[in-house]
Amino acid sequence: MSSTVYKCEGCGGVMEFDAKAQCLKCPNCGNSENVKSNDGVIEEHTLTIDAKRSIKVEVKETQTMECKGCGALIEVSGLETAKKCLYCGSSYVLADKQEETLIPDGVVPFKIDKNDAHERFNTWMKKRLLAPNELKNLYQRGGFQSIYVPYWTFDAQASFNYTAEGGRDRTVTRTGADGKTYRKVVTDWYFTSGHIENFFDDIQVPASIRYKSGLFKGIEPFNLKQLLPYSPDYISGHLSENYSVDLESGHRDAIGIMNDGVRFMAESNVRRRYDRVRNVRLSGGYSNETYKYILIPVYSTTYDYKGKNYTVMINGQTGKVSGLYPYSIAKIVLIVIVLIIVFCLFMYLSNS
């Protein structure tokens, strides 16, 4: 297995991509080098049946490589395309593994460093009012991993006709059997129809089965206006992996997202003229579909609290945090007691 190590010309250390400086930087002596970036245009690939059939997930066996820094043996899973030695910290970009499958079209570089990630986590945790107080001390023994996660993006022109029923509310006054009058809201329903034309740009779909979760959705979206042509320089010092969700599956997810978007647009159109909407039916499809394969930056950590693991993720571009945390039973009980006391006091004062 061939690998690339970015050696520092100053001290011989390993150069890593620095999120703050946006360049390769040696953590030992501070020497820096500009990223050897590709100045070309990021290509949009036409989405064809052949492309969906050919870009499949190939499960590779775990391999072993020797660290050039300390000689230790490093296990590399079938999906990993960048790795760090656990013993000496040397970073490797496994370019040949990337080329065996699919070279990314673009990359969103890390914009915040690990120190910033820690600060954002601490700020986030302070707002978890129901978390145990000692959780912060437990977390300080852990740390974040920086990883480039694979993503598919899709563009498409949507053209749909829709039919629906729009409802207008009116209030009627009626007299009951007891002689009293009362008001009731009645909805009159009318047939309506229309047309939706919309261009969907860069619909983002995770290309990793490890990161297709509600937790990961919590740190989206990523600003793809900062997408740059791919260069392995951006990966040095960070972890990276190949896609484990194939193009066809990713496209299916994107269609679901776009369908929801078209339905929302149709319902919004009806609501501009009516009070309510129901029975929306769509007919149409998508054209001029294209895709890109990109890498996006994420910080991830898993910490243990009383024998249970909790995961926290941070968007490495925007700093948005999404995570799981334990709840303090004592705090919950205290809140319930306070609410009961407040309710009892309110009832007492109301009856006085």
Automatic annotation (TrEMBL):
| Keywords per UniProt | Membrane, Transmembrane, Transmembrane helix
The uppermost taxa in this organism's lineage are: Bacteria, Bacillati, Bacillota, Clostridia, Eubacteriales
Enumerate the transmembrane spans: 324-349
- Name this protein carries in UniProt: DNA-directed RNA polymerase subunit P
